[in-house]
Structures are given as C-alpha cells and as structure tokens.
Amino acid sequence: MTTTIGWIAPEFAREDAARVRKDRDGYVMKVAKVRPKKRVHLAELEATDVTTADEAATPKTKALLRYLGAVAHTEKILYGHQNDMHRKVGRKLKTDSDTYDITGDYPAVVGMDGLALTGYELELTEHERTSGLTLAEKLAHVAIKADRAGAIVTLSCHMPNFAEVAKRGRRENGSYDYRGYSPDHTDGNVVHRILPGGDLNGVFTGYLDLVAAFDQFLQEADVPLIFRPFHENTGSWFWWGAGRCTPDEFRRLFQYTEAYLQKKGLHNMLYAYSPGGGETRSEDDYNRTYPGDRFVDLTGFDMYHRDPKRSDGFLEKEFRDVLGIVERFARTHHKVAAVTETGMLVGKSAMAKRHNGYDAWFLDAMDVMRAYEMAYFLTWSNFDETNFDQPYMVDAVRGHEMVNNFIDFYNSPASIFAKQNADYAAWERGDA
C-alpha cells in the first residue's frame, strides 16, 4: 500500500493556520468544525488469522487481536493517547480528557503506565484513602470507563530501579515502597538480579503483583489489556536497556514476566514488544532481543520526530525506514504491528506551547503510517502546559496553536477514534 502526505483536503485548510489570530498567551480560537464520523463495522474488515501468545486468552482478548490485525490491513489507523482519561492540561474544562474537549470523542487507544500504580501519575484523595480504595482499583475504574466508551486500553511500565527499592527496606506490612521515578537509574545490574534466583526477584514480583491486582479488575470486567513492558530496550536510558543486560537476559525477563502474570490467572492480556526505532536499522537489529513468537502478540516501536519541520525529511526517510522494517518483521512472524509511541519533540520537552514548526504534523504523520500495516499509533501524555504531546483546549473556545489542525486529523476518514471502533467482541459472540 502506498500513499503521499496530505491526501485529504481538510475543512480547516493548512494555509489558514497562519491567519488564525493568536492571543498574547499563545492560544488561538477553535474555528474548525468537528464532522460526524462513521463507525467501523466488522463486515468491512478482512479478518486475519492470529494466534494469541497466551493460549488461554479470553474470547474478547482474542477478538481484540483479530480486530487489530484486520485494521492494520486497511488504509485506516487507530489513534492512541497516553493517560488520556486521567491526566490533562485543560483543567478549566470539567471533563476527563483533552481529546474529548477538542473532538467530543476519546482516542481509540488509551494508554496508562505502571507509575500510576505507585502514586506517581495517579493520586488518591483523602476520602478515597480512608475508604480503602487502592491505586490499582482507581486506575482500573479509568480503564473500564475507557473500554465502555469504545477505547482499547494499553499499559506500559516505567518500573523503578528495584535495587534502590530494596535499599529502602520493607514497610511494616511486609510490602516494598515502589514510589518515585527511577527507571533511568541504570546502576545495580538490575535485570540479572530480578530474574529467578536473583536477590531482587522478590522485589520484582512484588511489583508485578501490583500490575496483577490492577489487571484482575479488568479481567473481571471483561476488558482486554495490551501490556507493554520493558519498552525502548534497544536504547541505554533504562535499567533494562542495551548495555544494562544481555539480549538473552532481556528475553528471559520478558518471558518470565509473562509467565508470572499468567500463573496469577490473568488471561486478558496481549503482549507488546516495543524497542526504540532510532536503534533499529534492520530486521536483525529488531530481532536481537525479540522474546520469541510464543511470547509476543504485537510488534511495535517507539520513535519521535525531534524539532519537526515539514521539509526536514524525517517522516519520508528515517520514519518510513523503520515502519518498513517492523512491517516486514510482523509479516514474517505473523504478528500485528503498531507504532507504540511517537510524536513531536520540540527543544528539550515534548510539544511546545507555540512555534512548533509543523502545524499539520498529526495529519501528515498519519498519512505516512497508514501506508504500512500498522494497527495504531500512540502519542504520549498531557501533563501540564510545559509537558504535553497533544493539542488541548484551554477554555471552551480557545486552544493550543495546533487545535484546528488536530480537528483536521480527527475529521480524516483514515483516523479512528473511540466512537468509530468496531464492536470487535462480536466476532467471538458470533453475531458480527
């Protein structure tokens, strides 16, 4: 399948972006109109033969993998956004989502992270704490709401450095304190030590028990979960990354993690392998730490567009190269491919409040990705006005400088958001 950038003439023409007046604070009026979009129907899709890594996967989980595989073979693509329904910039608007504020719809894929299970990206109110609510249960409520709204849920894990966790000792109740952010603390030979027989294995499995507690709520609600542990491992910035463990140790860690969760009785997970795209120059590179076909459902990659400009060639060269590599690998191994993280990096942060350099990035990047067999792409989280990866509304009528371009992206027939997701479970119910 081939395509070129800019295949759809948007209602809000790109050249009109410069004519939208920016206020002194950098925000613009929302002038583009959100158009109704048609829902994807299973009858329109060509069902693919897929086999879940977990042979005992629930029927809805198997149906989800089948749906993702079918979407990957169309000229459409699912849009995902990390933390979409529990973190946002536009806090004056009393909704749970920046995406919803712009479009009246949620992303087709809603991302979450294990940091929320330790209180770093999710907090309990005093009332919730005294009532006995746990972080796992609170995050599960968000995930179940996303599923009921038509979205697909995925969980990544920025796991703490377990050597540092161990040094804190145990709490009075015998549990470990996993709070804080330390995946980028790379000392301690952590991977070797958390594998079976290592002195940190119990610290690691205690963390996996938090993941299991969260997922147990989802399984009981019949909500599948795309689980994406140990991402970007081909880089060296996390303790599970290149130079911090051997390829064999990484494979064993991925396999052990999956087996541990399944032994806990969890069978609603699809497992995603997602190395860094910047370190992927060939299928051999991609395969170097691949856990094996028996342990992987989705083959993805993370790759960002730094200081983007339409003329810099990144989307047409570097990005396409990795898309092609991962697409070919997925075909060879009978897996479903996805762009598990992407977006714009401007300066030292994510997107900029103003002067991003590429107003039409979402629409153009999608046009490139949909030319390959990718099921979805996911942009990272909106935390605040200094750290966000997607446009947002600051009030009811004004938003980020790219908000009108984002509506162009939403209006495209190629983009799929939550309301357009098919009822994929119908395949397993037999009433599709």
Give structural notes:
- The chain is α/β, with parallel strands linked by helices and 432 residues long.
- It has one domain (14-429): Glycosidases (TIM Barrel), CATH 3.20.20.80.
- The protein has helices at 59-72, 98-103, 126-130, 135-148, 162-168, 190-194, 201-220, 247-263, 283-287, 315-333, 361-369, 403-411, 426-429; strands spanning 28-29, 77-82, 109-113, 152-156, 225-228, 269-273, 298-306, 336-345, 374-379, 398-399, 415-416.
- It has an 8-stranded parallel beta barrel, surrounded by 4 helices. Strands 1-10 form a two-stranded antiparallel ribbon.
- Helix 10 (315-333) links the parallel strand 7 and strand 8.
- The longest helix is centred in the middle third of the chain and has 20 residues, at 201-220.
- It is globular.
Q: What's the topology here?
A:
Elements: E1 28-29, H1 59-72, E2 77-82, H2 98-103, E3 109-113, H3 126-130, H4 135-148, E4 152-156, H5 162-168, H6 190-194, H7 201-220, E5 225-228, H8 247-263, E6 269-273, H9 283-287, E7 298-306, H10 315-333, E8 336-345, H11 361-369, E9 374-379, E10 398-399, H12 403-411, E11 415-416, H13 426-429
Parallel strand pairs: 2-3, 2-9, 2-11, 3-4, 4-5, 5-6, 6-7, 7-8, 8-9
Antiparallel strand pairs: 1-10
Helix pairs in contact: 4-7, 10-11, 11-12
